[in-house]
């Protein structure tokens, strides 16, 4: 009976927690396709903080001093003001360097509609301070003469970094302002920067974050008054008049608090906290480094520089290189000679979420790699009554957070006490590029300001976007294509709407409008019409698809009539056209026919006008990149896989290809290790493990969750940048080629044979390019690259295919069997199989009971490996000549 009673108590308690946690526990998650990313303004210049006005316009600041307005009515960006700002640091030796300072924040007064006050936080040029000022702005240009200086935060400008600069108001019109610790941390090996040696105050965060008498490394809370002064609200960390303290302080022990938000229901303050750079912990110094997401339910001390994550540092003497005691979270003591405040500090508050460079066991959804925590808003539907794009109830009470480097948005579920419950990716297919501020607008949309990937520069990917939610009828997702986009007149083209879908399953109607020079020339209501363009010129075919409820969406394609695309063919007259075999000779012939220009055969087109190239690619290749290179094949296309991985990684946050950023350029790295045969392996391991010291004190984060093969592909690409790019020689249109093994290569890549001809064009139509490409693959094909499977359990990451049923098959399409004598399946416990041509039941062209089959067929065809019984594991398919 006692056990039953305890079970019931536990059960009822669990139910109570779940109910109290409502926050969408039993509400279905909305489909991702109900959210739409809308680009409001591309190509911004170092954007920092923004606020959305009631009419949907967006006011934001750029770090170098400009204040801009995205006008929602005109859909244009307007420069409304500019403030002189300090952005440089000058060391003791007179060396100038760019820092994080500048124009950091902007916010409207809660009663802006009445008083037209706007608050701006910037690095002043007339004093060594970061300044909070109030201006009057009623639209139009900002009048700097209206400035009222409210608060100065004294700083040092000998070394960077960490400025903070986030601002918000609470319901009582109290203004919160975040400030960074103004401390150079990279000289501390990724641990706590507490260098107490004479003259080293810029490297000692005890002067700021843990100094109760200093405004840096804090979140301040003040109440602005009508006359431009401010008062201190009740409940700050130190009562007004307390010796050796500043009453403006709400939280202390902050390193770089970033993007504040207040839960409108509880009044609790949330923010992201950018942590130090260390990858590994040390018994002599303290923990590995973490970024944090924090919550302050009341004023408190959040630990920096004595604590990071939930762990303490040890005291460290930078002069003697000796370690002292661990700091006590219940009673941290600041004995630094740079401290002007209290020595005994308030007890520390642990973070809500903390995560390292490596993958976190506690918070695995956060991934791994570089990190830079950015806070975001907490959603409550009551804050957006009747908003057009209000988020669904599933997100009620969730905290949306992001990371400047990693680019995800995570939805964090909190319980009624503000404690962490869980997190999940919001729109997993969305990757932001340097998100630096994020909040909901009056229309209910989630607005995001993207700084781009790279420090202190104008990043072309920087943009202002919003994410709209559609809880009702969704627009059709439109696809439009054509079987040909150019041709001689009369130009016959088949337009296609293939791929167009409607997430709600509504009946769709189609309308094609074809225009020439903006004048409508053809209309069709067919889904896939065939049209004829009789006159030369440039055309636009626009497809509008409407659903039965009136929602519509459009897409266009460009067409060119009056010039036929050249017909180019790369033909093999000897050898296999699917696989290469080391040391074997292939013979080829290129033919070119162009309706207007003539042909190679009639000599109106000369061989020198045809681009012919053969290249070996050691990795995956991008056929689009190949096609774009008409005169010479771009051998760097072999690194298309690596370039794609780089875009998805955090590498561009610290590196550029040619210019130095936070870390060295990729080209610098390549030159440094040129000729070092062991560099590829060492650098692959270092990128995974992280490290520092080679390029100064900048720390490279660990990438422990990134597969070694992907890291190695990136390293190969980076090291290739030291090689002098020599344009390949144009080959003859008829010839032979020996597919020799390539030195210092795995020889598991491909040979690319390409021919291309760009015609002369006509008066009415642009030039057109025709091309032909043949790819000769390595004769050992990973089974994951097969074209089709049935009765097979495929692990693409491991490239294995497990046979799970009798009569299972593996399909390869369009394989040239010329010269192929046998095919072998490599793997484990492979039983008998037969090879069929054309279909699984087609003609048998090979059979075996020992994993290898002799072949009795020629020419190109689809082939099927059919297994009589289940069992066995296939890893690769080997073709032998």
Walk me through the topology:
Blueprint: H1 2-20, E1 35-42, E2 47-52, E3 58-62, E4 66-71, E5 76-82, E6 88-90, E7 96-98, E8 103-108, H2 112-115, E9 117-123, E10 129-136, E11 148-154, E12 164-169, E13 175-179, E14 218-224, E15 230-231, E16 249-252, E17 257-262, E18 269-273, E19 291-296, E20 300-301, E21 307-308, E22 311-312, E23 314-317, E24 322-326, E25 353-355, E26 373-374, E27 399-403, E28 409-414, E29 420-425, E30 435-440, E31 446-450, E32 463-469, E33 481-482, E34 486-487, E35 491-496, E36 508-516, E37 519-524, E38 530-533, E39 537-547, E40 552-561, E41 567-574, E42 585-594, E43 598-599, E44 611-617, H3 623-627, H4 640-648, H5 666-672, H6 679-689, E45 691-693, E46 696-700, H7 708-720, E47 734-738, E48 750-758, E49 769-777, E50 780-782, E51 788-790, E52 792-795, E53 800-803, E54 808-816, E55 822-828, E56 833-837, E57 843-848, E58 852-854, E59 860-867, E60 873-880
Parallel strand pairs: 16-20, 34-40
Antiparallel strand pairs: 1-32, 2-3, 3-4, 4-5, 6-7, 8-9, 9-10, 10-11, 12-13, 13-14, 14-15, 14-16, 17-18, 18-19, 19-25, 21-22, 23-24, 26-27, 27-28, 28-29, 30-31, 31-32, 33-35, 35-38, 36-37, 36-39, 39-40, 41-42, 42-43, 42-47, 44-48, 45-46, 48-49, 50-60, 51-54, 52-53, 53-60, 54-59, 55-58, 55-60, ...
Helix pairs in contact: 4-7, 6-7
Describe the structure.
With 881 residues, the protein is mainly beta. The chain folds into 4 domains: 34-469, TolB, C-terminal domain (Neuraminidase), CATH 2.120.10.30; 481-561, Sandwich (Immunoglobulin-like); 567-777, Orthogonal Bundle (Cytochrome Bc1 Complex, Chain D, domain 2); 780-880, Jelly Rolls. Helix content is 8%, strand content 37%.
